[in-house]
Amino acid sequence: MVSLRSLIISLGALAAAPSVLAAECFGSSNSGFSVTEFQQTAAQVCNYGPDAQIQFGTTGGFPVARRIIQAHYEGNAKIHCWDAFNNIIAQCVQGSGRNGGQWTWNYNGVNEKYWIQAFLA
Q1: Would the pLDDT of 29 be above 80?
Q2: What is the 8-class DSSP label of residue 20?
């Protein structure tokens, strides 16, 4: 029989594991952006600043639209940046065919929110 203490410790360990936390996917479908393009934009946020916007060329045909991915971080610690964006990309872009999503972490005084989104402009 599992003791209450063991159960609480196990649940606490699960809550502290960012790789298993679900991303919240956005509602629009992906308009042909690659996983590599999402990863490239996420890398700009994780390596440099809280915001990134990259234009990946334009669409063919008329009217021409710019292919853009934006990403953003806000919070008091950028501890889970790679895990957060990898979760969004794997779950929302690859898994659900969405144009992005967001991932939030609030635990023990650490607050982080990440989002990434592709669109045509």
Answers
A1: yes
A2: G
